[in-house]
Every structure is written in C-alpha cells, then in structure tokens.
C-alpha cells in the first residue's frame, strides 16, 4: 500500500517546476537536495535530509543541456546509493539520446544504450519514462522500465475542443501504432505520411497515405525538435486540402529557431506539447499541457506496488 512517509521526491535542475508539481500532487514536500557546481564546472550534490530506507524518486528529464542533466542524474543516484536509500527510481519524462537507438550507418554508436548502461551502473533500481522515441529502448536497461504515454493528457485536451471530422496523422511509418491508438480513442480516421530523412533534422515529404481533404488534421508525434519536418508535413496536408492542422508532440525540444518558425507559420494552427521539458519562452501558437498528475499517480502506484497499465485502459 502507498505510504507517503516512506516516499520522497527529489529533483535536479532540469525541470524543477515539474518536480514541484508532482510533489504537490502527491501532497508531500519536495526532497531537500543541493545540486550546483564548483567554480571549475564540476557538479556538486548533497542530499540534505535522511533517506536511509526511503523509496526515492529523482525527477530529471535528460533534456537540453543534455550532457549536464545526465551527469546531475548520475551523481544524484550515486549520492542516494551511498546514503542507503532503499530503492531509487530515475524519473525521466524525456529520455535524451533516445533518437540514437540503432546503428543507422557504419561506425556510429548506439548512444541510447550507453545512457541506459550509465544509469544502471550509477545504481538506479528502476526507470520511469514517457513516450520513448523507440519502444526497444526499454530493452536497453537491465532494470525494470515503466513506460508511460501522454495520450490521456492529449485526449482530454482535444475532446474539450469539440473538433469535427478529425483525421489523426502519423508523420512517419514508425509512428503509425501511436497514431492508430489515438485515432481509435477519438473515433477519428487515420493517415500516414511517407517521408525520407537524408540527414539529421531534415526530411522530405514523399506522399500522404489516406484521405485528409476537408478534415481537421492532428499530427501526433513524440518529439518536435527544430520543427522543420513537422511544418513540412503540415504543408503537405494543407496541399491536400486539410481544413486545419494541429500538432501534438509529447516532448517539445524546440531547438534553434523552432519557436519562431511556429509563431510565423500559417499552416499549423496550434502546437500542443507537454511539460516533460521545461519551456521558458512565450508563444501564442504553443500550448503546454501538464503531465504532473499522470507522473504523480504512476509514482504512487510504483511505490504501492500497484498496476500502471490501468492508467491507460
């Protein structure tokens, strides 16, 4: 059973607002920890309360600055191991390096596997994450992985908008399973975009499979980075006479001039992301949905040894 006195939530600097929101939802204070730097840039960590025998959860998405946030996570885990925490769960709403999940060409690393090895070697007992870029990343870990989906959060949002004649669009063949499940929940049609990616952060749209004419299109994806690919998909849908185009992406990396691109775009009506990555800019085109309650419920269930699959029935 869930016992709040044996549960503590801690955070690095990657997304403190999300960690605070999760702790508030569970109705416990955020754990006290000092996470800063020495003058030479080395990360300094000190857990400022007793955690001996405590079930500890570390909220630390490995988002930009990716390498620094990964190191913070590893050092916090090590500090907790040495402080005799009974169980350590790394809560990674966004899993950095997740796009490097295979050898796409000769003489390249599988960085997603390397990061999994580092987290395991540091001493984590479990990982809680959301909308991994590739499902097989769960198998890169030699510890249990609980994989959540932002689908319930997006579903609630779009149902309240009362959109008509919807078609859910998978922006590439790899996202078909996610889009199909979402379309089923919305009682909507499904379309697929066939695209090629000749180099990173660049894609050319080849074809749209499915009828999008005179429909409201919702592009569903896991990550939006520079935004170039997503906007090209939206343009292709508009060319095929889609009435309006929305985009829902779990993780808003939004690097470079991505925010400006969306602000100036006349093809995407609205971009909806979650707060898995802390978003500090302001934009009338970008809507941020909170996953704090979803993660809080998952953490309570993990701590209480209860099922997580019921969250997505």
Overview of this protein structure:
The chain is α/β, with parallel strands linked by helices and 313 residues long. Helices cover 30% and strands 27% of the residues. It has helices at 16-26, 66-82, 111-122, 151-161, 176-186, 228-239, 258-264, 292-303, and strands at residues 7-11, 33-37, 43-47, 55-59, 87-92, 126-130, 145-148, 166-170, 189-199, 202-209, 216-224, 244-252, 270-274, 286-289. The longest helix has 17 residues, at 66-82. It is globular and about 60 Å long. The model has no long low-confidence stretch (mean pLDDT 94).
Short recap of the structure:
With 313 residues, the protein is α/β, with parallel strands linked by helices. Helix content is 30%, strand content 27%.
Q: Any chance you could write out the topology, listing elements then pairs?
A:
Elements (H helix, E strand, L loop, with lengths): L6 E5 L4 H11 L6 E5 L5 E5 L7 E5 L6 H17 L4 E6 L18 H12 L3 E5 L14 E4 L2 H11 L4 E5 L5 H11 L2 E11 L2 E8 L6 E9 L3 H12 L4 E9 L5 H7 L5 E5 L11 E4 L2 H12 L10
Parallel strand pairs: 1-4, 4-5, 5-6, 6-7, 8-9, 8-11, 11-12, 12-13, 13-14
Antiparallel strand pairs: 2-3, 9-10
Helix pairs in contact: 1-8, 2-3
What labels describe this entry?
single chain; 313 residues; alpha/beta; seven-stranded mixed sheet
Strand content: 25-35%
Structural class: alpha/beta
- What Rg is obtained from the alpha carbons, in whole angstroms? 20 Å
Strand order of the largest sheet: 10-9-8-11-12-13-14
Based on CA inertia axes, which overall geometry fits?
globular
Order of helices and strands: EHEEEHEHEEHEHEEEHEHEEH
């Amino acid at each position: 059973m869930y016992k709040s006195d044996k549960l503590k939530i801690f955070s690095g600097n990657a997304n403190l607002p999300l960690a605070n929101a999760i702790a508030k939802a569970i109705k416990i204070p955020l754990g006290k920890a000092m996470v800063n730097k020495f003058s030479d840039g080395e990360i300094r960590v000190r857990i400022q309360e007793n955690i001996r025998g405590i079930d500890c959860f570390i909220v630390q998405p490995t988002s930009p600055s990716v390498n620094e946030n990964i190191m913070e996570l590893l050092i916090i885990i090590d500090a907790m191991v040495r402080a005799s925490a009974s169980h350590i769960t790394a809560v990674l709403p966004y899993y950095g390096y997740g796009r490097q999940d295979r050898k796409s060409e000769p003489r390249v690393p599988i960085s997603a596997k390397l990061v999994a090895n580092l987290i395991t070697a540091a001493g984590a007992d479990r990982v809680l994450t959301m909308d991994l870029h590739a499902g097989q990343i769960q198998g890169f870990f030699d510890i249990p992985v609980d994989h959540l989906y932002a689908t319930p959060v997006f579903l609630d949002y779009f149902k309240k908008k009362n959109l008509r004649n919807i078609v859910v669009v998978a922006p590439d063949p790899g996202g078909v399973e996610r889009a199909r499940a979402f379309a089923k929940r919305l009682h909507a049609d499904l379309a697929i975009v066939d695209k090629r990616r000749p180099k990173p952060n660049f894609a050319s749209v080849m074809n749209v499979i499915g009828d999008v004419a005179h429909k409201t299109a919702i592009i569903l994806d896991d990550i939006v980075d520079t935004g170039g690919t997503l906007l090209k998909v939206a343009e292709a849908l508009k060319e095929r006479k889609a009435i309006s185009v929305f985009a829902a992406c779990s993780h808003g990396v939004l690097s470079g001039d991505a925010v400006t691109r969306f602000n100036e775009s006349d093809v995407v009506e609205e971009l909806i992301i979650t707060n898995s990555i802390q978003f500090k800019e302001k934009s009338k085109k970008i809507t941020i949905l909170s996953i704090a309650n979803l993660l809080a419920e998952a953490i309570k269930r993990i701590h209480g040894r209860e099922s997580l699959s019921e969250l997505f029935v």
